[in-house]
DNA sequence: ATAATCTCGGAAAACGTATTCCATCACCTA
DNA sequence: TAGGTGATGGAATACGTTTTCCGAGATTAT
């Protein structure tokens, strides 16, 4: 005998009517308001809400309150384990705080990135987390969009790109790559190739420069640029093999997916990674343990990075606080100890 | 000399005022309305919007229109390559249609799943896509929530769980697993172990039952249940080894991450996957190609599944249309041809 | 020339909620 | 007992849009 309107959700007014109270009281009862409501009416409202299957319209709440309960996460490619791990951490942190995460992927296109941030402004998310962006300087369009967003009260956090005027969580890519280089030199390696990503990718640049700086004689390395993907690593390694530089002992790819692509290229050429040519990567994605030989790399706490980025925007601390997370060099079978020459 | 209110975005009224027109005209000018507005005023409004850096408040739009431009995607674990690939496809499809994707992860907890759908209803998303859920029957709470959501005009699509009264995109897990079993039998294998996930996971059940049914003598297989994760695969394989069933020739894990975990357990025990014990998985995640030996598996078009799920909810075709996507058995080095006994 | 239609602009109402005022009532203090 | 104070409920308004409705010109058909 209850007459529910078909085709639409029950509204706060419906609940109020059912409970025999005003909309204001219903509103106060159903969410954390400063105002108190009598136990009697509270029970009435809760019962009515339950009976009608009421779910507050979050859009309406957002316009009334002027703020939303969502945070936007921007990644290059969600299928890339690096980003999906960061996303997992971010989602975990956000859900713990009662926020929902909206996600957008840039496909590594700066134009797309700009477009995304621009439409995102319309969503008025509580915060925007940029994972692996390539914001240039203060003068480009993206920086402008972000400034506008911040001016309107939004929070911004950046993952893995220190030096921008936002809360940042990062690892010291340069130093870690240097540590890796030093460890490999200590393992007996002398002649290197570096497979790096596009030059405008801060992460790629830091890692490749840090690695070169960590070598005893930096001159001894050939550098090849390629896409920041497994395909890119494959292509770069193929090119390297084509050049016929037989004296190279170890190939360092600036991230694990590239390194794994490079290993595949080696196998395609009939070579055995680790034996014929050593390989090292960066990130320690879970696949790094599973490939054979297991990949020497630098462990980056990706999940923690996502989590801390959320902390950062929620804590609302200093504007451009930088959280540095520790890394570990992990040597595995893809770079066996090199005895003798 | 322009006086912009600090601390908040320009509103439609601001734009209208700046352009010297009414709010109604500004609204009509700035979005695809049925009504036309004169070229002159249109230019004025566009110029004003540009000047002020106007971005429409999507929450307000949503409450006014009564519908949002978002679709919600629910996955078990975004760091799992199976789900992150589906997510990549879904995001691609959604962005192409001008929708934003909000994401939630259940961590494989039915309680969490219910909670998520319930809060999601508040967002009034255009559609909800459930990837890898475990909705039981029509009587449980989750089904109830979904019914309420649909009654209010929302669309639901399900990935990989046919038989529910929603648009579905799936692969025929049972048949594909049977095909894989047949191919392995043809390769000379006779004695099998199956590492499967929790029994209430439809996907796991279909794959393990299909595999057993595809064997010549189904009796010849031992079945071990474990978590649907790499850790689960590792644990299951460790248990299997502990049982000392030396006559087993091939271990089939119901998904690739479990299979990869199983391979790791083999190596931990000093055995060589593929030589001492063959392994096969299911899904063909990209890591399957990169492990050594490369993993025999069934290719599932995960990205396409995400994409088609979005198509399904956008097309608005038949309520419970099922889209079947093709699979391919791919035999790799982890299950070498078995010659003689 | 007049009626009928079309085009376009703006005022105002609507969407579903939060919140600001009032008003009422009970209780406490002096 | 009078005035003050605190708790509680409701009416009304605000949030930033979209959309309905109305009216005024302009255009077309007769």
What key attributes describe this structure?
homodimer; 341 residues; Rossmann fold; 6-stranded parallel β-sheet; 4-stranded parallel β-sheet; 13 helices; 12 strands
Largest sheet descriptor of chain A: 6 strands, parallel
| Largest interface in this structure | A-B, 54 and 56 residues
Unreliably modeled segments of chain A: 1-6
Assigned CATH superfamily of the largest domain in chain A? Response regulator
Task: Give the integer mean of the pLDDT values of chain A.
Answer: 91
> Which term fits the overall shape of chain A?
elongated
The CATH architecture designation of the largest domain in chain A is 3-Layer(aba) Sandwich
Give me the count of strands of chain A: 12
- Counting helices, strands and paired strands, the structural category of chain A is alpha/beta
Oligomer: homodimer
Beta-strand residue percentage of chain A: 15-25%
């Amino acid at each position: 005998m209850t007459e529910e309107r078909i085709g639409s959700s029950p509204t706060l007014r419906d609940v109020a009517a059912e409970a025999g109270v005003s909309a204001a009281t219903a509103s106060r009862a159903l969410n954390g308001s400063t105002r108190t409501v009598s136990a009697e009416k509270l029970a009435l409202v809760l019962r009515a809400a339950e009976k009608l299957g009421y779910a507050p319209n979050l859009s309406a709440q957002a316009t009334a309150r002027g703020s939303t309960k969502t945070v936007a996460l921007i990644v290059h490619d969600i299928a890339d384990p690096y980003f999906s791990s960061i996303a997992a951490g971010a989602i975990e942190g956000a859900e713990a705080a009662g926020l929902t995460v909206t996600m957008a992927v840039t496909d590594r296109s700066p134009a797309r990135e700009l477009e995304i941030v621009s439409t995102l402004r319309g969503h008025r998310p509580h915060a925007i987390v940029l994972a692996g962006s390539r914001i240039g300087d203060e003068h480009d369009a993206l920086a402008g969009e972000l400034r506008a967003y911040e001016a309107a009260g939004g929070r911004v956090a950046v993952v893995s790109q220190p030096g921008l005027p936002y809360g940042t969580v990062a690892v010291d890519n340069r130093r870690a790559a240097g540590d890796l280089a030093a460890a490999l030199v200590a393992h007996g390696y002398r002649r290197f190739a570096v497979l790096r990503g596009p030059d405008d990718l801060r992460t790629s640049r830091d890692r490749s420069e840090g690695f070169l700086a960590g070598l005893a004689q930096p001159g001894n390395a050939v550098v090849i640029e390629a896409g920041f993907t497994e395909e890119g690593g494959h292509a770069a390694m193929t090119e390297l093999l084509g050049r016929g530089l037989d004296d190279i002992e170890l190939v360092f790819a600036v991230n694990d997916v590239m390194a794994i692509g490079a290993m595949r290229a080696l196998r395609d050429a009939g070579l055995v990674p680790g034996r014929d040519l050593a390989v090292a990567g960066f990130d320690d994605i879970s696949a790094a343990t599973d490939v054979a030989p297991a990949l020497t790399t630098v462990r980056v706490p990706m999940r923690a990075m996502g989590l801390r980025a959320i902390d950062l925007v929620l804590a609302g601390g200093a504007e451009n606080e930088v959280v540095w997370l520790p890394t570990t060099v992990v040597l595995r079978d893809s770079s066996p100890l090199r005895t003798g020459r």
